[in-house]
Amino acid sequence: MAFMLGEVVASEAAYLNNISAGGVSFDSIVELEPGTVIMLQVPVSKPLFSTPGRVIWCRKVAFQHEVGVEFLDANMDFRALMVGMVRRIEEYRQDAARAGRDLSGQEATLEWIGQFGEEFFRPG
Length: 124
What we know:
By secondary structure, this protein is of the alpha+beta class. The protein contains two helices and seven strands.
């Protein structure tokens, strides 16, 4: 995942921690002020999935910052898409547990996006 401030990519190393219908949290080497509007980009499809977000909180953790961002896209279709994705990721995590793999939410999210993200976000 990457985020952009205007047209400048602020971090290509942003690491996704959590995703929900309302927003995301990720690790960044860049400190972001609450209230800053950024463009979130998730490389799950061509063209790149992109949506605006507002930084809600940012806290320093070791040598990086953990950032919480709310989605600004109030479109109900977008929210439904996010809820569907979160459900599928949780199902993926539960299936992995039944198969003897104990995945964290972060691990399940990254694996699911890598395996199914492009198909899920493909316009239909």
